[in-house]
Amino acid sequence: MCRAQNEIATRQTVTENAPIDYDHLNLYVGGDVALTREVFGLFSHQVDMWGRGLTADADDEVWSSVTHSIKGSAKAVGASHLADLCERAESLIGDGRRLGARQVAVQNIEHTISLVQAEIARWEHRQSLADLRNS
Predict the structure, then answer these.
(1) For the chain, what is the domain count?
(2) pLDDT at residue 5 is higher than 70
(3) Range of the domain at 24
(4) Which of 78, 101, 80 lies closest to 91 in space, CA to CA?
(5) Which long-range contacts (CB under 8 A, 24 or more apart) does 102-107 make?
(6) What are 98-125's pLDDT values in tens digits?
(7) Residue 18 is part of a domain; what is its CATH number?
(8) What's the whole-model pTM score?
């Protein structure tokens, strides 16, 4: 498949609520399907690893590390809404630490991670179909 076809296969109509901004992602992967797969795999690994520490009662250092790390992974795949949620959650430390606010943040972040992962699964399915058509 040529590069232009890869970009078309990777692109999707972007709406304000889209879990992944493919235009942003393509700035870094250039429509390369293999690289996109790798970036998505890294994201999934990172949220799985860091997500275990995403608990409302975590100490400030853990909370800050977890939310910051998930934010970075989200930015890498163009999941800007998830990154924004994590950025806001990062401030829930020290004097700003409120258990109720953290509980809401955890729910929102976990829900948004699931939306991003579902979008990644849809993308992978579309790519599998495209691979079958082109073989």
Answers:
(1) 1
(2) no
(3) 3-133
(4) 101
(5) 102/56, 102/57, 102/63, 103/56, 105/56, 105/67, 106/54, 106/55, 106/56
(6) 889 999 999 999 999 999 999 999 999 9
(7) 1.20.120.160
(8) 0.85
